[in-house]
Amino acid sequence: MSSKVSKVLLLFLFLYYCTNHTATALSCFPADAAALLKLKRSFLDPNLTSWRRGTDCCRWEAVACDAASGRVAALDLGGRGLRAWGIDPVLFNLTALRNLSMADADFMGGRLPSFGFELLTEMVHLDFSFNTNLFGQLPIGIARLRKLVTLDFSNFNDYPYPILFLEEPSFETLIANLSSLIELHLDGVDISSNGGACSSRSTALCGYCSMLACGIGVFGHMLF
User: In the record, which residues are listed under signal peptide (predicted)?
Assistant: First the structure.
């Protein structure tokens, strides 16, 4: 009798585990899925075939979710050669993102959004390096991302002038606010308006700073 009870109990526990494991695996947050689909539509020929309505966004390529909440926690679209007319603001609906890479994309003359990055308060690693045809001021909201560990806006291009720049906030303020920052890449970003504020004291606040061709002379590359 005890053997039968044990078998029933084991079967119950097995079914319970399977049911809950499946539910966890399929717990894509609906609003995040909708945001990703809209983001996909903003790209020309995105080749993201697994991104389909009615499927679990946590299983889509380049996407990783938080197991407990189903929120999208990582989005790695770097190195895919994506093209778009700028950055769709729907990206900032993914407020649980901790890791985001949009490296090596062509934004075809689009400007960096002035607002939106400040909503990504969980961000730890942010990579917009080697984007072509993306213009404008580095968003002020980035200075509010207190959990940021790595920040990369490296940008070398064929234009006779820098297409990305940092004027407001000042470089020193940006670094001081990003208290968790360990690695910073701003190669090719014009920060010359900061003048003497870009000092060894401010750059020493992050572990590694790479700032080649930034219009700041001897502070073009620093390692501490």
Answer: 1-25
**Residue 51 confidence (pLDDT) above 60:** yes
Q: CB-based burial of residue 63 (10 Å sphere; 0-12 exposed, 13-18 middle, 19+ buried)?
A: buried
Q: What is the CATH number of the domain that holds 136?
A: 3.80.10.10
Residue 167 structural domain:
2-223
Cα–Cα distance between 213 and 219 in angstroms, integer? 10
CB atoms within 10 A of CB 180: 12
pLDDT in tens, 87-104: 999 999 999 999 999 999
Give the whole-angstrom CA distance, residue 91 versus residue 74: 12
H-helix or E-strand spanning residue 135 = strand 132-137
Structure confidence at residue 49 (pLDDT): 94
What are the distances in angstroms from CA 176 to CA 87, 181, 215? 27, 9, 21
Task: Look at residue 173 in the predicted model and tell me its pLDDT.
Answer: 83
User: Mind giving me the DSSP string for 6-42?
Assistant: HHHHHHHHHHHHHHHHHHHHT---HHHHHHHHHHHHT
Rounded-to-integer distance, Cα 177 and Cα 121, Å = 13
